[in-house]
Design goal:
This protein has 130 residues and is α/β, with parallel strands linked by helices. It has helices spanning 10-23, 35-44, 61-71, 86-95, 107-129; strands at residues 2-6, 28-32, 49-53, 76-81, 99-102. The chain has one domain: Rossmann fold, CATH 3.40.50.2300. It has a five-stranded parallel β-sheet, sandwiched between helices. β4 (76-81), α4 and β5 (99-102) form a beta-alpha-beta unit. It is globular. Keywords: Phosphoprotein.
C-alpha cells in the first residue's frame, strides 16, 4: 500500500505519517511539502491513497487529482483545508475528491476516515492476492 501525504505544515505532516504507521506499519508513505514535490512523486508511480493540503495547491488541485487518477483510477483522494465552505466542498467533490476535511475543526474525523480507508485498501489488496 502506497500513500502520498502532501502537507505544507511539518507538524501536521508528521502527525499524519505517525497515524498511518500506527494503522498500517507496512504502508509505504511518501511525504511532500509543496506542489512541485507532489507532482514529481505522482509522476513517478501510483498511490492508493493521496492526502492533499488544499491550501497549498496553488490553483492546481485539478492537475493533482488528474495525475493521481491517471496512475490509479481507484486511488482515494482526501483533501484537507483550513476552511469549511459548502460550495467549495461541492466543487472539490465534483473534481474527484473522495473526502474533504477542515484541518482546524474536523481533524479527528479525518483520522477516523483515514483508518477506515486504509483498512478498505488493505482488504482490496488482500482480495486481489487471493
Amino acid at each position: 500500500m502506497r500513500l502520498l501525504v502532501f502537507e505544507y505544515s511539518n507538524d501536521v505532516r508528521k502527525i499524519i505519517a505517525k497515524q498511518i504507521k500506527l494503522i498500517n506499519s507496512q504502508a509505504d508513505v511518501i511525504l511532500t511539502r509543496n506542489l512541485y514535490g507532489t507532482v514529481k512523486e505522482l509522476s513517478k508511480c501510483s498511490f492508493d491513497i493521496v492526502i492533499i493540503d488544499g491550501d497549498s495547491t496553488e490553483g492546481e488541485l485539478k492537475k493533482v487529482i488528474e495525475l493521481t487518477k491517471s496512475k490509479n483510477k481507484d486511488a482515494v483522494i482526501i483533501l484537507l483545508t483550513s476552511y469549511d465552505i459548502p460550495i467549495l466542498r461541492k466543487r472539490f467533490f465534483d473534481l474527484g475528491v473522495d473526502y474533504n476535511f477542515d484541518k482546524l475543526t474536523e481533524f479527528d474525523s479525518f483520522l477516523k476516515i483515514l483508518k477506515t480507508v486504509i483498512s478498505d485498501v488493505k482488504e482490496k489488496e488482500k482480495n486481489k492476492a487471493v
